[in-house]
Specification:
Blueprint: E1 2-7, H1 14-26, E2 29-34, H2 48-51, H3 60-72, E3 75-79, H4 89-97, E4 115-122, H5 127-140, E5 145-152, H6 164-181, H7 188-202, H8 208-216
Parallel strand pairs: 1-2, 1-3, 3-4, 4-5
Helix pairs in contact: 1-6
Length: 230
């Protein structure tokens, strides 16, 4: 299994260690990215990705390799420490750069067969809202199953974390489930959202590239992105 591992920070604190630990328990085939090291500039809101294509994004040279890695992976693991009760600004910046891959725009068929794990830690609170926010991003990218790993570590460094046994047990369990299950498919809610977006795209007169994409995929008829999952 291939894993794309994305860190919403450059430093290697508790979130990094838990995300990396989880990845290594699943597979040794890991492609890793750090923000802001691998994507330093924010989205400018130019809408080139919406009206021309993602390849026209001013940051396409940085964004494309990360998205391509996600598309070629079986599992996507994303970690973000809790900053002011939110994911890091650099991670949110990445999600803003790939919003045209959402179900509402031009979803990638490959996403509908993947599993994701989202990780967040905090010395105090907020980590659950962060993993929930990251899981929402995974859902709208079409990923059917996302595991959430929020941990209150009550420490400023990984060395001082006292709940390592709990973390190890939880990551062991999730890793075993992922390796055992392997195949995942969208549930009712995701298919329902897709059907709503399908109706909207039929009437789309604001983003021709989106509508053309759906037409070429034959999604206005009987085909669906999850039908090709093996």
């Amino acid at each position: 299994m291939k894993i794309t591992l994305i860190h919403g920070q450059n430093h290697k604190g508790s979130t990094y260690h838990i995300a990396r630990m989880t990845a290594e328990k699943i597979s040794s085939n890991i492609e890793e990215f750090f923000f802001p090291r691998d994507l330093s500039e924010g989205c400018s809101g130019c809408l080139a990705c919406l009206y021309k294509g993602r390849e026209f994004c001013p940051r396409a040279e940085q964004v494309t390799p990360i998205l391509n890695s996600m598309l070629s992976s079986d599992v996507i693991i994303i970690g973000s420490p809790t900053y002011v009760f939110e994911m890091t600004g650099h991670l949110k910046n990445f999600f803003e750069h790939i919003y045209t891959a959402w179900i509402a725009h031009r979803p990638e068929e490959a996403m509908f067969s993947k599993t994701a794990v989202v990780v967040s830690t905090a010395a105090g609170g907020g980590m659950k809202s962060v993993t929930k926010s990251m899981a929402r991003q995974m859902f709208f990218l079409g990923i059917p199953k996302t595991y959430q790993l929020p941990f209150r570590v009550m420490a400023a460094s990984w060395e001082d974390v006292k709940i390592k046994d709990k973390i190890i047990k939880k990551t062991d369990k999730i890793a075993r489930e992922i390796v055992k299950k392997r195949k995942v498919t969208p549930g009712f809610k995701q298919k329902f959202i897709f059907s709503i977006m399908r109706s909207m795209q039929k009437k789309n007169d604001y983003a021709p590239l989106d509508k053309k994409y759906w037409e070429e995929k034959n999604w206005f008829r009987k085909d669906r992105p999850w039908k090709h999952i093996k």
